[in-house]
């Protein structure tokens, strides 16, 4: 696997002044080009890249990174789907344990007769949380069942202490409620495995972070799933964004990349905008129109 510039980039984000004592964490993404229908090859490529990565606390991989994305129909996706003992789950458990860190990645999840586009978050001691994609995009609606679990943040123990993270997948970015629900549940970072095909998400995540004063890690893929009778091209540009909307790391459109950023978690825990305004205290839920 080729890393941009021949090396892994690491950067530091100091956060805002006045956010209190630094609680450091290292967030990263792995952007790569999966080959459709070649899970062993895709898992091996990811394993090689992660093996040579510098230290990290949380690393995000793309949506459906082992199987590829462009399923023709539900039957084909079911044939590629995995349960909790499948190769992707084993890969995440073994890699997280070996690196002493957390990994989040997307996979096709089979649960009885149900089929979900899911993201699995796994920790160094085998801790596991699974999110099932709520907002299905385009042909996904014909293939997957909609997620049956609400957006929830989870605690991740890292060397700096405990941070709260929330999972969302690709098209979830279009709905401000996704990120807001996670932030209101205490998420300090949004972990966002993606297979993006539209050009807007990477910049929209700046707004999601500003709206909620959180970090986000969007791990996209590159290349094209060409199935002969149809093909899907992906936009790359994986990105890490800070609570002030600053882009802390970004990948190119068409190359593999692994980037890790060291951040100050205090910046995401402080919801103050200025001396008089606080993002959470200023909310007026009673004035917001309820959904019908």
- How do the strands line up in the largest sheet? 1-15-2-3-4-5-6
Average pLDDT works out at: 93
Question: Compute the gyration radius: what is it?
Answer: 18 Å
What structural class do you assign from the helix and strand content? Answer: alpha/beta
Element-by-element helix/strand order: EEHEHHEEEHEEHEHEEEEEEH
Count of domains: 1
What is the CATH class name?
Answer: Alpha Beta
In this structure, how is the largest beta sheet organized?
Answer: 7 strands, mixed
CATH topology: Nitrilase/N-carbamoyl-D-aminoacid amidohydrolase
User: Percent of residues in helical segments?
Assistant: 10-25%
- Per CATH, the architecture is 4-Layer Sandwich
- What fraction of residues sit in β-strands? 25-35%
- Number of DSSP strands? 15
Distance N to C terminus: 49 Å
CATH superfamily: Carbon-nitrogen hydrolase
Summarize the structure.
By secondary structure, this protein is α/β, with parallel strands linked by helices. The chain has one domain (4-287): Carbon-nitrogen hydrolase (Nitrilase/N-carbamoyl-D-aminoacid amidohydrolase, 4-Layer Sandwich). Helix content is 21%, strand content 28%.
């Amino acid at each position: 696997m080729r890393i941009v510039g021949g090396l892994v980039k690491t950067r530091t984000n100091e956060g805002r002044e006045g956010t209190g004592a630094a609680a450091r964490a290292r967030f990263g993404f792995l952007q790569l080009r999966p080959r459709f229908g070649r899970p062993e090859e895709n898992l091996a490529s990811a394993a090689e890249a992660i093996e040579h990565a510098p230290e990290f606390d949380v690393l995000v991989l793309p949506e459906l990174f082992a199987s590829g994305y462009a399923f023709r129909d539900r039957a084909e996706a079911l044939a590629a789907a995995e349960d909790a003992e499948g190769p992707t789950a084993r890969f995440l458990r073994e890699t997280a344990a070996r690196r002493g860190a957390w990994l989040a990645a997307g996979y096709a999840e089979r649960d009885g007769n149900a089929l979900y586009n899911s993201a699995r978050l796994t920790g160094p001691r085998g801790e596991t949380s699974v999110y099932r994609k709520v907002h299905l995009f385009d042909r996904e609606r014909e293939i997957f069942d909609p997620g049956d679990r609400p957006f929830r943040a989870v605690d991740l123990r890292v060397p700096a202490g405990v941070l709260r993270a929330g999972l969302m997948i690709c098209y979830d970015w279009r709905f401000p409620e996704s990120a807001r629900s996670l932030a209101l549940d205490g998420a300090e970072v949004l972990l966002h495995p993606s297979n993006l095909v539209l050009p807007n998400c990477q910049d929209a995540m700046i707004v999601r972070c500003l709206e909620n004063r959180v970090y986000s890690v969007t791990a996209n893929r590159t290349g094209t799933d060409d199935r002969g009778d149809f093909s899907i091209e992906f936009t790359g540009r994986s990105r890490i964004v800070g609570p002030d909307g600053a882009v802390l790391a970004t990948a190119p459109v068409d190359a593999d990349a692994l980037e890790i950023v060291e951040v100050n978690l205090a910046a995401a825990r402080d919801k103050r905008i200025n001396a008089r305004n606080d993002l959470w205290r200023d909310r007026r839920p009673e004035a917001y129109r309820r959904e019908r």
